[in-house]
Amino acid sequence: MRPFRAEIPPHVADVVRRLPPDLKLSMRSAIRALCDDPDAGLPLQRELRGLCRYRVRRFRIVYELDRRRRVLRIVAVGARRDVYEAVARLRKDRKRR
Q: Which tens digits make up the pLDDT trace of 4-31?
């Protein structure tokens, strides 16, 4: 079975690009690991249902899976203390449109 392909939007790539070098390496390594085993992350609940999270130190990768197309879509990368609120806001804004 072929691995999943990561889809990283420009705003997430900018966040990763601005991380300190050691954390950036850990983040890239985590994304590659998720492509090989997308079920390694934990599913989110309530308003973030349908998304998963993966821990990288104090940071989280929030992603969704398209199993049919074998795509791992990165939704957000950020510090645990505020990444979930940011993703919830994004989802709420998209639903309004």
A: 999 999 999 999 999 999 999 999 999 9
Q: List pLDDT tens digits, range 48-85.
A: 899 999 999 999 999 999 999 999 999 999 998 888 88
The answer to whether 96 touches 60, Cβ cutoff 8 Å, is no
DSSP string, 18-57: TS-HHHHHHHHHHHHHHHH-GGGSEEP-GGGTT-EEEEET
Instruction: Classify domain 5-96 by CATH number.
Output: 3.30.2310.20
Pull the structure tokens for residue 72.
Answer: 């791992």
Residues 21/1, Cβ–Cβ less than 8 Å: no
The residues spanned by each domain of the chain are 5-96
Ramachandran area for residue 21 (φ above 0: left; ψ -120 to 50: alpha; else beta): alpha
Contacts of 2 (CB under 8 A, 6+ apart): 70
* Bridge pairing between strands 5-7 and 71-79: parallel
